[in-house]
Backbone:
């Protein structure tokens, strides 16, 4: 069923992509701190990945901040930073309409995707995401297949570019809180390549397993081992494979194992008085079992912006807080869209999460102890490429490559 | 020649160490970004380290800032941060005496070392450092062996606790700009354990190889492979081995391979006018072939401190600059000694170094292109322990462990 694969160049957001005639598969291994690969490979349980990076490339790249899923997935499919594409979290406070709104819809996306451009240039594009919440952004204006594992059995030809997904993939629609939610994404990718249904794929996994298990746990090792089998099948099918992560993952607990949380709205009110602060946790999403809406990054809206410097300087020296920026500095240093952050942006330490107030965060739903992300210590993630990098991209890899360069590296970096 | 090994507890800077009756060896693998281990292990060239961490522990720890050698070595042997031990670089500006002074002498150390405490408690302690510059700080007030590879053949019993080092180790004094400079340190450690000359050792390597070669270069792979052989011998001798790094290492070059430098004194004068600024590069040391005194961390002394905020805010949004702190914030967030930093502390990006003015930096001496450290992107380093961690230290490893907890982990973390 293999058909001719288009090698027509395509362009998106100022970058040009010159694809080879091979299937191209980019994987976002959600929440894959490098330690997950280190540990699983240490026990010789990722033989395909090992062989893949021996032939190709393994290194570290810098993600977009905040180190959240939607932010980085939007960056990966556009090739640009949040300052350009506009997705700065799952949630933001709309200061014009004075309401807190979800940012899951493509209507918030300010850049076109390279996937849409590839499809327009003649590639058969498929997007498979674990969580339905990402499907709208990832498939924005795109002709092709766009499904989620979560709702695989609801895909219809006219809306998803495919139907009978379970039969095609050979697996049932998985539970979202499971290893299978991510494995289904990879299996769908394998099936689509094998059956000639797609030749440029973006496979975006989910981090339920990483939120729940540290790298040395058998559940995690078995999960990465199962991922490795699917990666092996993609390589057997002749695909050029690139993989990265949206963010890392760290335990955010005290010495007794309980969550290590700083409730920023609470501490600001205790110190400066009530009713002056609105803290937004942009990690908030409907999938509560992962993290209880607690990450290492929040934004603060002030009712009296003239006090910005005073409040910033106080916050900056509170234990657990590692970085505090005013809006102008966050726009430059953290590459944020000015209209979708607050007056202050606050990041916390490797083992610390920041929240709003206790009543906003239900930790009883967590499976396991608190592991989360969002801050600086989840910014650096692995990049893996199945084919040798050419001289230009070797040089680029040695600079400050980004996780949202992954299509650039996979498509252009492996050209001779 | 093995004699009884003391298990008497010892205490330093508020921490208690309960050593086992085995030889204990802590290695500081200078400049070992995790990528060096990843890449060498990928090619199956560190079999002993692989077996060691399969039995024990491998994870990431946070170093002290600035991510320089002396700062982190002083932290490792005291178990505390620069705010406590006072060593904040190789160089600082003494504002009282108005002079720039080297900080290589133990007279600048404000905390006792755990090595001295261990020796006082009856352990046979040996310190072996590649560079002579570190010997004074590491062996402060310590009874035992203290030598450098650089001047191994000059060691005398009364001043170094040992003589005839070349005969004992079985290797000649190495050139300082070589792989052998570090390998000699490890070989000396093996010889001292084997011959019963020491039972608690600190082996501090040098990063000439990492400054000069990226992880995938054959020179680097062969170097780590040679390190692995010595680690294997230490394990064969029954040692409990812990290893970490003082800092990571990144290429600091533009797309054309030339050094990516921001001369901070220059840009400040261009913008704010002349004669108001003194920029100190605390990485400066006599070993010029490594980095040309360019790292990702400088401090700035202002002739008019009332302009601190204005200058800080301007610097914070300059491309390449990632963090700028005033003194009070640097003391808290970066754990610095207030009297040995400047009015401002400036950190730069993963691929950027900060310097003073071009005339202060001789890059012609570099062997290879510019690879350096000092900033946030060289802060996270590996920690490797040869024996399983007990429950308490497993929990500790999952929080925010530090590279200067390495003796704590190696000594206390492996106790049943």
Residues:
């Amino acid at each position: 069923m293999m058909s001719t694969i288009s090698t027509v160049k395509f362009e998106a957001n100022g970058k040009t992509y010159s694809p080879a005639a091979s299937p191209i598969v980019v994987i976002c291994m959600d929440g894959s701190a490098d330690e997950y690969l280190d540990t699983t490979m240490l026990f010789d349980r990722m033989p395909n990945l090992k062989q893949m990076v021996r032939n190709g490339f393994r290194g570290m790249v810098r993600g977009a901040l905040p180190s959240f899923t939607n932010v980085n997935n939007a960056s990966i499919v556009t090739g640009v930073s949040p300052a350009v594409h506009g997705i700065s979290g799952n949630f933001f406070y709309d200061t014009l309409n004075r309401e807190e709104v979800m940012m899951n819809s493509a209507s918030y996306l300010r850049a076109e995707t390279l996937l849409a451009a590839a499809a327009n240039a003649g590639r058969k594009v498929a997007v498979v995401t674990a969580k339905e919440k990402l499907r709208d952004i990832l498939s924005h204006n795109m002709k092709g297949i766009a499904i989620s594992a979560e709702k695989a059995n609801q895909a219809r030809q006219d809306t998803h570019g495919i139907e009978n997904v379970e039969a095609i993939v050979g697996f049932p629609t998985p539970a979202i809180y499971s290893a299978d939610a991510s494995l289904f994404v990879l299996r769908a990718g394998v099936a689509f390549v094998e059956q000639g249904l797609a030749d440029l794929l973006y496979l975006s996994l989910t981090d339920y397993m990483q939120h729940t298990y540290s790298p040395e746990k058998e559940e995690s090792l078995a999960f990465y081992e199962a991922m490795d089998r699917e990666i092996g099948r993609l390589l057997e099918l002749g695909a050029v494979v690139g993989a990265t992560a949206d963010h890392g993952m760290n335990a955010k607990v005290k010495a007794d194992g309980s969550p290590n949380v700083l409730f920023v709205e609470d501490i600001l009110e205790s110190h400066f008085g009530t009713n002056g602060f609105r803290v937004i946790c942009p990690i908030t999403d409907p999938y509560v079992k992962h993290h209880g809406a607690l990450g290492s990054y929040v934004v603060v809206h002030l009712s009296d912006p003239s006090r910005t410097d005073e409040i910033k300087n106080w916050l900056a020296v509170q234990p657990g807080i590692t970085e505090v920026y005013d809006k102008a500095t966050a726009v430059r240093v953290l590459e944020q869209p000015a209209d979708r952050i607050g007056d202050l942006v606050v990041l916390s330490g490797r083992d610390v999460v920041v929240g709003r107030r206790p009543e906003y965060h239900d930790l009883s739903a967590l499976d396991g102890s608190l592991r989360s992300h969002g801050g600086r210590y989840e910014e650096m993630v692995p990049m893996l490429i199945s084919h040798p990098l050419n001289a230009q991209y070797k040089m680029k890899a040695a600079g400050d490559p980004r996780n949202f360069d992954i299509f650039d590296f996979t498509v252009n970096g492996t050209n001779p």
Summary: The first strand of chain A starts at residue 10 and ends at 12. Chain A touches chain B at residues 34-35, 38-39, 41-43, 50, 53-54, 58-60, 62, 214, 251, 253-255, 257, 260, 309, 313, 316-317, 322-323, 328-329, 332-333, 349-352, 376-377, 380, 395-396, 398-400 (CB under 8 Å). The mean pLDDT of chain A is 95.
